[in-house]
Q: What sequence folds into this?
């Protein structure tokens, strides 16, 4: 492949290529979104595989090499690379996920969740922003370098998994099976929101997750509330009482013994920097649609989502929940509960702390079990690392705007695994937007960010190569 | 119709008639149980009507007069009478219901729910004890008097409804449409359990019911718990906190202001009498299958079910309740809550007290609505009324055992309506048994109680006639 005369000339050719391919980028993403790769739902198992296969085709087409499907006990991973930039060039690993959250039209979608409709400058559909639209920016960027830039200026590796939305249960199997093949200097993940309409963001930390199922068993069977009402603990009420002890309704603090023990307190400098880019309450009120905000006392909403752990009930179910009424004392009650974690909290330890607490406060007459279902370790990188500076420059050049340096509230369990096992510096550069309804009905992705995301990825590859050259 | 020479001779002939008709009583009840008259389920609407029509045929066959189907906005009522005992004889109204709770084989039934299988001395099927098997005892008894006793010794009226299991929503329409036709001195209802295998019971009070739906609305849509966790009140947690304030987890007392204001405290004599027939804790532990009992401090379990009001969560639902996990902060949370009431609590007032309480304790950032779905007034009669003495004698003669005088924990909203509008003294004499699984899978009815219930009803008609004669 002929090398362009200068890095600048090569980049210009790459950017020109990207400008010409926009229509194809859109139709590609529509195809991808139309595959309902819902990892949580067994009935979509074949669809998840179809998305993996679609992705392999796109990687081959882009010119990536050694495109491999890695089987796991769950949904497969996809690995590809292009390693011709020489031993002195940096090696970048790009991570993304091709699975999606569940979506049913009846959940409140206006657009069909798996049609990829184009409207108002966006593509609408489950997975459009999380993460299909974002991961495809990297494939587009690699393709542009390979086809028009005289080859990639870095050694590029990519890994895409199909279980991020169900907790990356088998991601470790992908790492086990690929061994050193994914070793790299730097990890780039594009699966997070920008800071604003034209304001990019670099994320230097991710919250972890400890997700568990709480089961409360009471009487031997459902009971008639007339005949037996007043004689036994009602498991639904026991669960309500137990959950109500987990968080102070005034201060918002989690009341589980030891919960905050391992939390790394942010520095004054970190809080100051974050203050500059923090949203005012009015923005949180608008984005949540709530009539008032609530959270841990002493921290701003931005700090609460980025720097502080949480305790949330994600689902609760007991007794009769159909139409009409039934006078029943339920036999059991169930909750799905998760804690978002910050460095250096451990998901296993947090689950144990919660289980100990719930068992302590459970009334006599009910049995409680707490089962860990899903976990992710928190991630935290040093934003003064030189690679952050390189990425920052690429973003300034793309968006004409300085990126915000942010702690992120979400969790990407696989990132913690890769940081630990591959020795990579994790940098999260997202092209989504908070109003794009990831995990909610009417998910969408701005088409302009499909294009700018592709440009940013291409520029990042150039800048980290330049950074390494000195 | 020729009168028998003495009341005693007439009764002997009636009892002899009953003894001969047992096989037909069983096959009749099987026919009745085979009609799946599930009032809650719209797809059984025609079955409910078929049961009403079957009942009319049976009443005609028994010799009852003016058998009338009374249309309502819901399922119809059936009214019949036989009024030839003269103006000095007492007038008795018998109430029952021909509708049933829902039942699906998959709920845990061994027998088919609507086949009326005979096994182990019982008939098995939904509605067998609640209330088809019990109401038919009265039709059998009336028939025996009419065919073999020289005519009924009392003026007898009967009313059967098809909506008891869904809260007797349209029973008032039956009373509206029949006007004075159902006026009577005494009301007998057979829709309750006996005290033991051979120990009959007379129920002198019923709990009322106030059943309402609680809806808690929080953010404008479901939120991603990573991006927004820590910024708003989670409606599932808000609901848990709110419900946890409604009952003291130590004393079991309902903590809603004014809840106990209208409760008629039982006399020391009433508590003493109840003590004699109270079940020990071990029986409640066995019947509920719970590992410990719980309820309002200072009262025995029997008192708590009979004399005290309750607050129970019958159902609760929020967020993601499917398989696996979803990291969502739900937009809404819902509970179905009911209070069992005792005299003189008013279901509307109790609903208002609960709504006021929940709105007071609801955190800022959520909206609460409480909607009354279902209600029944409590019923309380004076067990020293002479008609109770007459019924007691009939039961002693049938079961060779003194009946227990009991307060009942369940609710029959129609009984309160009849007490108020028809001026009747309500007496509840049931032939069911607590282990016959009303409202649960594997409902059954003892055949021996079909026969003894018929005999008891026949004797009751004789005794109340004798009581009136002096």
A:
């Amino acid at each position: 492949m002929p090398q362009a005369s200068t890095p600048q000339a090569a980049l210009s050719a790459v950017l020109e290529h990207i400008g010409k391919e926009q229509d194809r980028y859109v139709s590609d993403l529509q195809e991808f979104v139309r595959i309902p790769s819902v990892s949580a739902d067994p009935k979509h198992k074949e669809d998840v595989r179809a998305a993996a296969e679609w992705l392999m085709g796109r990687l081959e087409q882009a010119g990536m090499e050694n495109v491999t499907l890695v089987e796991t006990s769950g949904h497969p991973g996809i690995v590809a690379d292009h390693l011709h930039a020489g031993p002195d060039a940096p090696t970048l690993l790009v991570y993304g996920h091709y699975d999606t959250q569940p979506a049913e039209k009846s959940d409140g979608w206006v657009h069909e969740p798996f049609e990829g409709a184009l409207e108002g400058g966006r593509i609408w559909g489950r997975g459009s922003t999380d993460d299909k639209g974002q991961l495809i920016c990297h494939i587009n960027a690699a393709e542009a370098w390979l086809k028009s830039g005289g080859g990639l200026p870095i050694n590029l590796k990519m890994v895409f998994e199909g279980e991020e939305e169900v907790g990356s249960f088998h991601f470790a199997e992908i790492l086990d099976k690929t061994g050193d093949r994914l070793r790299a200097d730097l990890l780039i993940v594009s699966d997070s929101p920008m800071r604003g309409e034209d304001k990019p963001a670099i994320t230097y930390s991710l919250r972890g997750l400890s997700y568990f199922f709480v089961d409360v068993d009471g009487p031997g069977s459902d009971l008639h509330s007339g005949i037996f009402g007043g004689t036994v603990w009602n498991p639904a009420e026991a669960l309500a009482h137990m959950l109500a002890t987990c968080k102070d309704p005034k201060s918002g603090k989690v009341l589980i013994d030891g919960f905050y023990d391992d939390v790394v307190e942010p520095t004054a400098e970190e809080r100051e920097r974050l203050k500059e880019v923090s949203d005012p309450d009015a923005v949180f009120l608008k984005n949540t649609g709530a009539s008032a905000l609530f959270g841990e006392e002493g921290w701003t909403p931005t700090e609460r989502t980025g720097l502080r752990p949480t305790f949330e009930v994600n689902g609760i179910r007991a007794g009769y929940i159909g139409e009409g009424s039934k006078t029943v004392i339920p036999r059991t009650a169930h909750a799905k509960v998760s804690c978002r974690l910050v460095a250096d909290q451990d998901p296993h330890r947090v689950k144990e702390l919660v289980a100990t607490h719930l068992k302590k406060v459970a009334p006599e007459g009910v049995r409680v079990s707490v089962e860990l279902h899903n976990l992710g370790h928190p991630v935290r990188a040093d934003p003064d690392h030189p690679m952050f500076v390189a990425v920052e420059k690429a973003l300034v050049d793309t968006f004409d705007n300085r990126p915000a340096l942010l702690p992120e509230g979400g969790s990407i369990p696989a990132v913690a695994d890769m940081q630990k096992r591959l020795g990579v510096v994790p940098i999260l550069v997202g092209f989504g937007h908070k109003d794009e309804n990831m995990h909610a009905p009417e998910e969408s992705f701005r088409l302009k960010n499909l294009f700018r995301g592709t440009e940013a990825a291409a520029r990042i590859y150039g800048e980290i190569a330049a950074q390494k050259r000195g």
Observations:
- Chain A touches chain B through 95 residues (CB under 8 Å).
- The longest strand of chain A covers residues 208-217.
- Residues 447-469 of chain A form the longest helix (23 residues).
